[in-house]
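Same chain as my last thread, 117 residues:
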Amino acid sequence: MPPCQTISGYSVCDNFETGFGTTGRNVFRAPFESRFDFSVFKNFKLSERFNLKYQFDAFNLFNHPSLDAPNTDFTLNPCYNPVPCYTTTPSSSRGYGVISNTIGSSRFLQMSLHLTF
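reply #2:
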C-alpha cells in the first residue's frame, strides 16, 4: 500500500510504512546482550624452524542467554488492513512487545594447535 491512497472514497494513509511519524528514536530496542568471550594461548618452540601454538577459546563463557528483540509486528492489530481503525483491546494481549526467542549460541569451547614452519 502506498503511503496515502483513496479506498471507497476515503483517504487512507499507511503511517507505519512512511518515514515520518511522532514515534521517538530507539523505541524498539532489544534487551542488553551480555557475552563474555575468553581466549588463552601458549607458544612452544620445537626447534629453530618449527613452532607449535596451543590455543583455547571460550565463547559465551558464562552461558548467559541473549534475548531477541520484542515482537514489533504492527499487523497484529486486527484493524490494520486495509482501513486502519481503533480497538480497545490492548495489543500486548496479542503478543505485541513479548520476547519469545533467544539469539546467538550457547557456550562454545574450542581448542586448536597451529604448527608453523
